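Entry, Tuesday afternoon. Goal for today is a structural model of the target with zinc ion bound, before we commit to ordering more compound. Inputs were pasted exactly as handed over by J.K., no edits. I checked the ligand SMILES twice against the vendor sheet because last time a stereocentre got dropped in transcription.
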Amino acid sequence: MKHEIEDLLMAMDRRLDCYGAGDPDCLLAMFGLRWDDVAFRPRRLARDAMLHEALPAANVAFLLIHLEELGFQVDPAPLISELRPSLEKRPLLSSAELSVFWYSQTRGRNPPCRVKPHGTQYGMRPLQSWKTPEGYRVELHGDESGHVALLEVHSPRFQRRPEPVETVCPDCGHTYRRGDPESSEFHRREHRKRMRYLNPQPHARMLAARQSEPDPELVTSFSPAWKHREMYDRAYAFKREFRYDFIQWQSPKGEDDRQAHGYLIADEAGAIVGACAFRWRESQWGLQWVWISPLHRRQGHLGQRWQAFRKRFGDFQVETPVSDAMRAFLARRGDSALIEGEAAHPNERP
Ligand SMILES: [Zn+2]
């Protein structure tokens, strides 16, 4: 509650008198916070409630953290140690909660904090500077007549780190910020996931399926979940590579379309090097998408299966988007007319 915050500030540092430096409305505005309206839970039949100005506890901690940086004798630590355990398992944090979460690592190490009481002014010069008991260096800047326009606080142990560099991984194509541990960790996870299909290794279940199934590469709505996961990964790779809008396989767990015919394209060693999917489109089959791992392209994997696909699905339509490599592939076979919305090229065999 606002009145409790006023009392708290005043009790911590007498300079934070609510008619002076501790005016909570001014402090909130300075640090980009806003009051919430809260009410005590009404009795069952009550129709209206009295609203009070209040701040979530994490925002109070955020306020105290900044006041400490400014050199006031406030101690955010007790409130933060109360709040910290509740944040451990939360998937999403507000920016105030983030500063609570990081407090023990960032105390005294934050980048310079700048407060502009009256907006930006030009031609400022340093007016005054001092060190707080905790070692923060405070600088006042202002104009010729001595009006303060900017207050800057430097943490005692702040070290400027090199800015993270946006980097594209040459192997998996993921863009991340090198030098930012969070982003690098995310890349490592994504890298492992992508390399499974970008650089596939012999697949034990595919090898087993070859021993026991008549059509081991076929994936339908009746196929086991591992096949759907492999299909989904390649459909995802297709989406990423061709910047398509959606993933053209229902889920890593299955596919409801009874007519869908997915194929996992495996090499001799049993590594799944790619996949493609056929679907029934009103009056004919459509080849919805094909994706082969870049390391395994131009090695005839699709070519070896092409005749069988033509036999099984007839004059199917090759649906767009069609890559240049796929166009060249179809042209070599005299099958350019299969491309959705295109007629046969006059120079081609019928
Ligand atoms: Zn990578």
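The longest helix spans residues 181-198.
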